Structure formats: C-alpha cells, structure tokens
Amino acid sequence: MTKRERLRERIRRSRALAAERKENKRKAREGTITRSSSLKELDVLRPSDTLSEANPYMTSDARNLEKQRQLAIDSLERDVEELSRLSTPSDENAAELERIRDEVGELKREFYTHLGPWQRLLIARHPQRPYTDDFIRLLFENFSEIHGDRGFGDDAALITGMAWFHGKPVMIVGSQKGRDTKQRLVRNFGQAKPEGYRKSLRAMELAAKFRRPIFVFVDTPGAYPGVGAEERGQAEAIAFNLREMSRLAVPIIVTITGEGGSGGALAVAVGDRVFMLENSVYSVISPEGCASIMWRDSSKAETAAEALKITAKDLLAMKLIDEIVPEPEGGAHFDHDASARLLEPYLERSLRELMPLAPERLVEQRYQKFRHMGQFFG
User: Fold this and answer.
1) Residues of the chain with pLDDT under 50
2) pLDDT at residue 212 in the model
3) What pLDDT shows up at residue 288?
4) Residues 219-243: pLDDT tens digits?
5) Domains in the chain, ordered, with CATH?
6) Cα 275 vs. chain centroid, distance in angstroms?
7) What are phi and psi of 217, to 5 degrees?
C-alpha cells in the first residue's frame, strides 16, 4: 500500500469514527445510546460510565478500559503526526487532516477531564512534569542558590535561593526530583532529609529578616525514611519547620506541582496561599502505603487513592487548599512553558494581595487558616 493509499485509508477511518461519535451523541440526547464497534475499539466512554453506582471504586475492567483509551489516543496522535508528514500545504486532504487533529484533541480533552484519582496520581508522578528548577527558569530572574544547613550538609532534594519576580526580590524553596536515574539518585528522588528541611528554614528565616516573600514549590513523595535521616532528627526537623513557618511574618505562597506526600510536603507547605496544579495530589500517605496498612496488599492502591481524596478537586471541596491552577491540555508534562504561564497570574495576584498586610495580621490569618482546617462538624 502506498503512502497516498494509507493516507486515504486513515482519513476514511477517521470519517467513520466522526460519524459514529456524532450518532452516539444524538442517541445520548435521546436516551438510546449504544456502543458502536468503533467506540468499542477506541473506548471513548468516560470513566464515570464504567463505574457501578453501588461501588464507587474503579473495577479492574474499568482500569483496563482506561489503559485502552489512553493507548487509543496515543495511537491516533501518532497517526496524525504521520499524516502531517505525508501531506503537503496544497494537499486536497489538508482540511481533512485538520479535522482529524481536532477529533484527536477532543478525545484527549475528554480523557483528561474525567480522570480518576489514580490516573491523576500517575500524571503527578510523570517524570517529565515541570520541577522547581523549571519554574525558576520560566518565572523568575537572577536566581542565586543557597546551599547547606550550617549543621550537617547540603540536601539536593530541596532547592533554596533568592530571585526576582516581577521586579520584586523573593525567596524560593522547592522540591527537586531529577529527570534521569543519575539525577534522581543525587536528588534522592525528591525525598528530603533533616538537613534539607533545616536548609529550607534557614532560607525562609533569611527571607523574613529582609521582608522578602517566599514561594514554595512542592513535589515530593514524602520525607526520606532512612535510618540516617531518623538518627539526625527527621521528625524534629519537620515539626520545627511547621512551628517556625507558622510564625514567619512574610507572605508564603505554596504551590503543589506534583506529589504532595505526607509530612515531608507539609514541612514546607505552611502558607498563606496554597495552590494545586490540576493534576497534582496532596495526601497524608501514599495510596500504596495506605493499602499496605489497611489491607496488607499494595495492589489495592487504586482503591486507597479513591478513599483518600487526594485530588485537587477533593481538597478544594474540603477547603484544604485555596485554588486549583489549570494545566495545559494533556497535562503539565506536555508543555512546561504553558504551565508556567498559567501559574504566573496566581502567584502575582497572591503577592499583590499579601504584601500590603501588616506582619501581625499576616501571621494571625495564617494561624486561623490552618486552625480551622478539618472542622467539618459542630
């Protein structure tokens, strides 16, 4: 089969898919929806269509359906790229190719709009998501890193340093996981040790001394649980951070960019504003850890993810965070620049609102904010 014939065959298939999707939407409006052969092939049903009303947790069939839908979308995207290479600007099929691209975009938007907690957790852990150093590069100027805790050493799992944001001097604290195996080992997979938390507090106290607002970016599975970390006072370092951050008389603006895992995340996340990227998660324990404790079976992690309410939407509903920051289509890992552009106005607005406040009022508001979290009864 020639390239031209393959092009025409793919266009024919896409036309059939578009016709069936149109018919499916019509039947949905009339209440007579059925799954056609093409829809079965691509599995474009929403996740909610695959769940039993009696059982809110995702079944194995639903999980398989999610994987098939993701594979189908990935396959269509590859087809579109190949079609783009096969066609020319003057090609009579150019309009048809654009229609196919729109169709794939619609499928992709539908998929990412209706993800479950476990799927969002997997996206939050994606190795190509923007990390602290990416946001520093895209949002800030003249960054100067601060190293060491002046007690034991320098923890590469946490980045701290001074920079400029919209013409104002600020302090930055953020988790850093690393892209490849070598970087992850150096960064300890984003799991900070006691010296990391003491370094971050040293930087924040320096910021408070010179009235510099603090921006915090959180993406960590949790504090490092190793023997050495425990010997050097891991729990004490986290507790000390929690107390001291609540007293800092400068604005603290926190963004959960990926994983917000347990006390390791909260140790640098006591802020006046707490934002979450759309596909990030924030939890007292990882779903795998929860499943291991509750059922002695880590394979039940997806069930635990549903029960823990780890997504940004869940946490916003419980008033544990302030706002959800949208991500580019498909997730932040697809476009770091767009992710930074979407986050920037939230940071700028928060800074504008918090900077005029008196230090005493700032501290009192922060105290009241965290004091009233979790009060669902009474």
Assistant:
1) 33-62, 65, 378
2) 94
3) 87
4) 999 899 899 999 999 999 999 999 9
5) 3-114 (no CATH), 126-371 (3.90.226.10)
6) 11
7) -120, 120
CA angle 269, 271, 272 (to 5 degrees): 160
Looking at residue 26, its pLDDT comes to 67
- List phi, psi (to 5°) of 219: -155, 85
Q: What is the DSSP string of 253-282?
A: EEEEEEEEEHHHHHTT---SEEEEETT-EE
Task: DSSP for 324-350, please give it.
Answer: EE---TT-GGG-HHHHHHHHHHHHHHH
pLDDT in the model for residue 97: 67
3-class state of residue 56 by DSSP: coil
Question: What is the crossing angle of helices 301-308 and 287-294, to 10°?
Answer: 110
Q: Classify strands 158-165 and 168-175 as parallel, antiparallel or unpaired.
A: antiparallel
Decide: 221 and 261 in contact? Cβ < 8 Å. yes
Cα 354 from Cα 359, distance rounded (Å): 10
Count CA atoms closer than 13 A to 322's CA, side-chain side.
18
